[in-house]
Design brief:
The structure holds two protein chains of two kinds. Chain A is of the alpha/beta class. Chain A is 41% helix and 18% strand. In chain A, helix 15 links the parallel strand 7 and strand 8. Chain B has one domain: ACP-like (Non-ribosomal Peptide Synthetase Peptidyl Carrier Protein, Chain A, Orthogonal Bundle). The chains are: A alpha/beta, B mainly alpha. Chains A and B meet through helix 1, helix 2 and helix 11 of A and helix 1 and helix 2 of B.
Chain lengths: 597, 81
């Protein structure tokens, strides 16, 4: 689909995703099905939805596993039934510099920085090893993009305390792993961000508002890039280039102007551009790309041009030279059939829109990128990713080294599958207290936007919340969670309505940022303690199912409540008898430890 | 740009984003009125509006957008300048 070919209109794709998907599915039925696990360190929703479009456009119909917000590490490292039964064909890890746990400060010694670097890269290495052992499938891993700001300015790049310097080292570790491991691929977001414009790519608006690590308009570029890697892994790269001559490989019309007058070579600007383009095309031979010519010219003139002293490409470089006056679509078809490949595995490189159209009309799946100005030819072909390289044959020396390293690594096998140990290592601290004015806006915001970890999905205005917090008929709790990587802010909100000797939980929600941290148990421990202080006998809670909150269906059961009612649409009611023994369930979060408290 | 023109364009954007040619938005249309309008689609709407009207909203402005009327207000405010 033209809309999905480089250079695409990113805004158009973002706002027309649904329609594009519908059309792709309507127009094509011949797909290969692949299961892709997207493990994210930030919001991934649109990365996934746009990736789906580009894959469909490549004849790949994906089903996705999408980790919860920022659960990439947990999903990879700990037992995960959902992912295990999903059995991914490909895993993509979408992390960014927002996920780097610790950055050097000016005070850190060289040793400390080395240790930091090794901890950070080992965390990833262990994760990749673990995923490989468990899923035996290709892994695509983002490298780190450059930071949004430079504390030390230019020195940030050369000094070991600089973030830029540190990220470059981290990336080098990633590349070293990639060099040693087949089936492990770097998604070079560092290049993409630079290409897009780092300032626009990393616009913090999208991070603060939606926890996207890159701006939404930049997402199609990323997704396109991921799709290229995937289609390459799946063997769906293009196989060859079919090239026009006049105004494609040189400037001017050789039949009219004569070989001596074509623009090619160092004498003037256009000639230089054509020369560089020829060099670029010629380098493709090293990648095993098949080159052929499809030109409206007399054969003699075509060969004369290719034998021009400034021509980088020589007649011998081409598997086939079709220079004649037949329709280009006919030539194209013959080239494909001579090479014994499908027409759509060849790319037409032609500056003339009419010729491109003629070929596309006969073979709609053929790519024929728009070439408008010679100085941009390389850009368009290069960024189209037709020949994205995922495997280059390596020599045996390298292979031996790789096997050796693998053996050593498996000795160090990842032993971190005790989840509680992991949670302990996060050094979590929480403050859980009644609503206070300073948090009221955040509390209101959470009540209005939390859909998934939300038992009743009740919405409140800020004034209603203020009223509730001032009333002695309610118990309110707001929980703030901090760990060694930083402060998550207020992440959980609970409202209990006291009726006689019972506390009815009207609202219980938690931000998905802190899923699986046991914060919900810490909250319940506090809730139970408060209710007992007040001499209450029961806590009652309800679960009202919505399209989005299935993840908390068993919440009360996990909290040790007893089910007292359920109806046919899935609403359930639960109670906890406070006269029974209650053992605090949270063992990993220290309560009351944030800040000066 | 007058309010009718803004709404005309907004309507087009909503139809695009939700792939539904029957959507008609009014001042009071909210996420509750359009089935697929969740927080993710909200982001897309904002991005699409920014691209289409060639404006850029601040975080505060986006937070204030509870209904389509709020969006139109913000757009008119921006395009007037």
């Amino acid at each position: 689909m033209k809309e999905l070919e480089y250079p695409f209109d990113a805004d158009f794709i973002i706002s027309n995703k649904k329609r594009i998907k519908r059309q792709l599915l309507e127009n094509e039925s011949d797909f290969i099905d692949k299961k892709i696990a997207l493990l994210g360190g930030s919001t991934t929703r649109d990365v996934l939805l746009v990736l789906e479009l580009f894959l469909l456009n490549n004849g790949i119909r994906p089903t996705f596993y999408e980790s919860e917000y920022n659960q990439y590490y947990q999903d990879a490292m700990f037992p995960n039934e959902q992912l295990e039964s999903f059995q991914p064909d490909i895993i993509y890890i979408h992390t960014s510099n927002r996920n780097i746990e610790k950055l050097p400060t000016i005070m850190d010694s060289e040793d400390e920085i080395d240790r930091m670097l090794s901890n950070e890269s080992q965390k990833f290495v262990k994760m990749w090893d673990q995923l490989t052992v468990k899923y035996h499938c290709p892994i695509i891993q983002n490298n780190f993009e450059m930071p949004y700001y430079r504390l030390m300015g230019n020195k940030d790049s050369s000094d070991i305390h600089g973030t830029i310097n540190y990220i470059n080292h981290l990336n080098a570790e990633f590349y070293a792993y990639a060099q040693m491991h087949d089936n492990f691929y770097i998604c070079d977001i560092n290049y993409l961000a630079a290409d897009y414009g780092l300032k626009a790519w990393a616009d913090p608006f999208y991070w603060y508002m939606y926890k996207y690590a890159l701006s939404i308009p930049a997402i199609p570029l990323l997704s396109y890039n991921i799709a290229n890697i995937i289609k390459s892994i799946l063997g769906k790269n293009k196989k060859g280039l079919v090239l026009d001559l006049d105004n494609t490989l040189w400037g001017g019309t050789i039949g009219d102007d004569g070989a001596e007058n074509i623009a090619l070579g160092p004498e003037e600007a256009a000639g230089q551009a054509y020369s560089e383009f020829q060099k670029y095309i010629k380098s493709h031979q090293q990648l095993g790309v098949i080159l052929s010519i499809n030109s409206k010219n007399d054969y003699e003139n075509a060969v004369k041009g290719l034998n021009h002293p400034n021509s980088e490409l020589k007649p011998d470089d081409f598997v086939e030279i079709k220079a004649n006056w037949k329709p280009k679509s006919d030539n194209f078809e013959e080239i494909a059939s001579d090479l014994n490949v499908l027409p759509e595995s060849l790319v037409l490189v032609d500056d003339n829109p009419m010729e491109r159209d003629i070929v596309k009309r006969k073979f709609p799946k053929v790519s024929a990128p728009d070439l408008e100005r010679v100085e941009h030819y390389i850009e368009v072909i290069d960024r189209s990713g037709f020949f994205e390289v995922t495997t280059l044959s390596k020599d045996d020396l390298n292979r031996n080294k790789m096997y050796k390293q693998n053996a050593e690594r498996s000795k160090l096998q990842v032993s971190c599958d005790n989840y509680e140990e992991y949670l302990q290592s996060l050094e979590m601290k929480a403050t859980i207290e009644a609503f206070t004015p300073v948090y009221m806006a955040r509390i209101a915001q959470l009540t209005n936007k939390s859909n998934q970890f939300n038992l009743t999905t009740r919405r409140y205005t800020q004034s209603e919340l203020e009223e509730i917090s001032n009333s002695s008929d309610y118990i309110t709790l707001c929980g703030r969670l901090e760990d060694k990587f930083g402060d998550n802010g207020v992440v959980s909100v609970v409202i209990g309505h006291i009726m006689e000797n019972e506390c009815h939980i009207e609202l219980w929600l938690m931000s998905c940022r802190v899923l699986k941290r046991n914060m919900e148990f810490a909250m319940m421990d506090v809730m139970v303690a408060k209710c007992r202080e007040m001499g209450l006998k029961y806590i009652k809670g309800s679960y009202y199912p919505t399209a989005k909150n299935a993840m908390v269906k068993d919440f009360y059961q996990l909290q040790g409540f007893e089910k007292i009612h359920g109806d046919d649409i899935g609403n359930t009611e639960w109670q906890l008898d406070l006269t029974d023994d209650y053992v605090n369930k949270n063992k990993v979060i220290q309560i009351g430890g944030i800040g000066n408290e | 740009m007058n309010r009718d023109e803004v709404f005309d364009k907004l309507n087009g954007i909503f139809r695009q984003v939700f792939d539904d040619d029957e959507i008609i938005v009014t001042d009071d249309t909210t996420a509750n009125d359009i089935e697929d309008w969740d927080s993710f689609e909200h982001i897309n709407l904002v991005t699409a509006i920014e691209a289409s009207f060639k404006v850029k909203f601040t975080m505060d402005e986006v937070m204030e957008m509870k209904k389509v009327g709020d969006m139109a207000d913000a757009i008119q405010e921006k395009t007037r300048k």
